[in-house]
Amino acid sequence: MTLTDFIRIIFNNIILVITIPTLVIVLVLVGTINTPKEYTSRTTVYTGIVSGNNMGNNLGVGGKYVVPSIFDNLKTIKESGKVLQKVSFKLLTQHILLDSSDKEILSQASLDHLYNLIPEDIISSLKVPGDFNATYKRIEAFTNKNRINPIYKLQASKEYHYSIYALSRIQFYRLKQSDIIALEYKSDDPALCVHTLNFFLDEFIQNYKSIKLSETSNIIEYFISQINDAEEKLKVKEANLQKFREDNNILDYIEQVRAIALKKEDMEGEFYDEKMRYASAKSSVEFIEKELKIYENLMTKNQQLVITKEQLEKVSAELATAKLLGGISDQQIEALRTKASKLKVDIELVIYEIAKMEYTKTGKNTKALLLQWLENVIAESKSKAKLEIFEERKASYKKTYQDFSPLGSEITRLEREVGVSEQEYLRMVESLNLAQLRKQNADLTTNLSVVDAPFFPMYPNPSKRITILIIAGILGLLFIIGILILLELTDSTLKNIDIFKEKTNLNFAGAIPRIEKNKKVNYDNLLERSIKLTIDNIQNKIKDGNIIAISSTQKQDGKSFIGELLKKQLIIKGYEIKLLKINENKEIENLIYSKNGSSNRLELAEKTTISSTGILILELPDLMDNPLPDSSIKIFDLILNVTRANRKWKKSESAFLENLKLKTKNIYGIVNGLKLQYLEAFTGEIPKSRNKIRILLKRLSEFEFKGSSYI
């Protein structure tokens, strides 16, 4: 749909476009005659949420989200049904206590309205003269008793003074980006506006404070309980660790293990050094003893020497043990030394006896070898005794390691448990400190301050009646325009040439306008112009002696009207024309619609008394009910099928014409009764008188900004 089409729809239905919005305006005007006057009171409250005394004002990066969230919480409290119900109770209490109307509290009309809502006997039973609190408690108890009492029903209704619905219309908004919130309330009673806001402020501030304080109090109680539990748990873990250390004689496990490791490492070094000394001495003794076996007669001396040597080894071992481990007195050590010296002297005497043989078989001096042997024997004995002690110490260290290894794992586990419990305790203490800080912060920030108290409105609000009427008119206008556009878009008739071509699938011959009561259009000239253009489109098909059929698929499509126009215009062009309606000439009808039909053009010309150069135009009945025999179709040089533009095209008609096109190619379509706006696609712009405004609108709708009607 183009802009031109839209404007034409509006102008073609201008009466409806004006009438419907006017009717809607009148209905709204009548409906708003008795609309009560409305008064507005307003109050502002300072919250101090962002810029006030806030000990925990750490909004950080998320502040832009936190602050709106806090104001949303305030708005939610404002919409709380509990808060609004208490406000309703207070309003009812204040008004029930009135013996007569008071313009500062409630007007007479509003008081009468209250007595119409609640029976007088119930009001009397709830009223405690001069006692606001007692009356409030009675009203609250009476309301909560059941759900069928009038006050409960009143609060649940949409009544405009005391219902939750009415009180929920209190407007709440933040003033720009400040800490101040504004509250507004509208009512038909100015005094009711003021007292509703006053009661609401009391309940709103009290509810907000109780929520914030109860929240922090519950948190503090929780953390105190958790700290006590954590402290007890920590004490148990510390006691377990202490008992384990006492039972296993552990002062500092790490230092003790380190000291044992160092001593063991030193002992290992001494042990390997002693093993080397022992191996060296033993090897020397074995070599020398091999050299000293010279004579058999020395066996006795040797045995004596061996016995004495063993005694010396024993004494040397005891003396070495005493030096390493201690455990005996100095006198005993001195006695061992004396005994060792005596044994050395005895050995030297034996050696002396043996040394009488000055040289060995290998030529070595026996005395020198014996002295060397003695020294190595003593060294071997000492090393052997020391090695035994080292072995005992190694076994002792091994046992110590075996004992300390599991102790280390257990003490680590116990210390870890103590650490975890200690961290848990410290976290709880930190959380308690934060909770106490939040409580102090809540004490500061929950003190909402009223900046501007609710004022008594002296004048009603400006009436919105004119605005409502304008909106009603616009809606009515949009409604009727929408309906007209919808009807246009859903129109399934052959309303324009493009649709006609698409639906009928015929060769387009021409279009004939619809005759309307429009004095600005010369329809005679328009009809003449349309039929001329139609004849021009089929001129190459019109010749002397032609037989032309004017048909239609349905009745009342205007075949006779178009036949007359065609006859008139062809006569003007100089053709001999004869127009016949078949249903008015039985002889010709029988000839055309006989069983075998007629293929003899001469016979048909004789029946119609038309010369051989004349053109015969036959108007056929509707083809769907009166189909032509195949033999008769062949005698027509041209078939003009006429279709009304204001009717719906059927699929059966398309199928019929497709079948007819298989039998003859000389079939053309003419659309009849086309509206003027659609006819212009065929005839061009239709000449008619237009004022300057319509000319301008037409150019604007067609985006013809630079066009002109003359050079």
List the helices and strands and how they pair.
Layout: H1 3-12, H2 14-31, E1 39-46, H3 63-78, H4 81-96, H5 108-117, H6 120-126, H7 132-145, H8 150-156, H9 164-167, E2 171-174, E3 180-187, H10 190-247, H11 253-292, H12 299-325, H13 330-354, H14 366-445, E4 449-452, H15 465-489, H16 497-504, E5 507-513, H17 523-537, E6 547-551, H18 559-572, E7 577-581, H19 586-592, H20 601-608, E8 615-619, H21 630-633, E9 638-644, H22 651-663, E10 667-674, H23 676-683, H24 692-701
Parallel strand pairs: 5-10, 6-8, 6-9, 7-8, 9-10
Antiparallel strand pairs: 1-3, 1-4, 2-3
Helix pairs in contact: 2-15, 4-7, 4-10, 10-14, 11-14, 12-13, 12-14, 13-14, 17-18
In short:
This protein has 24 helices and 10 strands. The chain is of the alpha/beta class and 711 residues long. The radius of gyration is 64 Å and the shape is elongated.
Polypeptide structure, described:
The protein is 62% helix and 9% strand. The protein contains 24 helices and 10 strands. It has a 6-stranded parallel sheet, with helices on both faces. A hairpin with a 5-residue loop joins strand 2 and strand 3 (180-187). Helix 11 packs antiparallel against helix 14 (366-445). The chain starts with a helix and ends in a 10-residue tail after the last helix.
CATH class of the largest domain: Alpha Beta
**What's the rounded overall pLDDT mean?**
81
* Strands side by side in the biggest sheet: 5-10-9-6-8-7
Radius of gyration: 64 Å
Unreliable residue runs:
58-62
Please tally the β strands and state the result: 10
Class per helix and strand makeup: alpha/beta
CATH architecture of the largest domain: 3-Layer(aba) Sandwich
Count of individual helical segments:
24
What portion of residues is helical? Answer: 55-70%
Roughly what fraction of the amino acids lie in strands?
A: 5-15%
